[in-house]
Amino acid sequence: MPESHLYEYAVLRYLPRVEREEFINVGLVMMCKRQRWIRAAVNVDSRRMAVFDNALCHDGLKRQLDGMLSVARGMPGAGPVARFPVEERFRWLTAVKSACIQTSRPHPGKTADLDGTFDRLFAELVL
């Protein structure tokens, strides 16, 4: 029987106007502490963004999301947070923010296939 892994995930959300609390799901970050595994991906659908009164241009949003991906991936140029262990990077990425990019509350789960579960959640929640 395959080993089951406990994981946590959060949806990355773009809030064109924070005060209205409307959002578009634009990405996913998922982490498994015991496997020292973290994965994040984004998909910005400009058609869906066009229905909102956008406070941030597409390029500005992409730049901010790319920064979050760099932290999740532990890229050397992403600053000191990128050197943290995966669980601390996940906590930093999912901390409550009052900004145009926020995350859902983290949600837990168990799976034998972390990458497969990430792909399924990304398709269901973001695409």
Counting helices, strands and paired strands, the structural category is alpha+beta
Radius of gyration: 15 Å
Number of helices: 4
Output mean pLDDT: 91
Low-confidence blocks of residues: none
Which of globular, elongated, flat, extended, rod-shaped describes the shape? globular
Element string (H = helix, E = strand): EEEHHHEEH
Cα(first) to Cα(last) distance is 31 Å
Strand content: 25-35%
Largest sheet: 5 strands, antiparallel
Helical proportion? 25-40%
Q: Based on DSSP secondary structure assignment, what is the total number of beta strands?
A: 5
Protein architecture, described:
It is a single chain. The chain has helices at 46-49, 58-73, 86-94, 114-125, and strands at residues 5-14, 24-32, 37-42, 101-103, 107-111. Strand 2 (24-32) and strand 3 (37-42) form a beta hairpin. Strands 1, 2, 3, 4 and 5 form a 5-stranded antiparallel beta sheet that branches. 32% of the residues lie in helices and 26% in strands. The protein is globular, with a radius of gyration of 15 Å. The protein has 127 residues and is an alpha+beta fold.
Question: Descriptors for this entry?
Answer:
five-stranded antiparallel sheet; alpha+beta; 127 residues; 4 helices; globular
Any chance you could write out the topology, listing elements then pairs?
Layout: E1 5-14, E2 24-32, E3 37-42, H1 46-49, H2 58-73, H3 86-94, E4 101-103, E5 107-111, H4 114-125
Summarize the model shown.
The protein has 127 residues and is of the alpha+beta class. Helix content is 32%, strand content 26%.
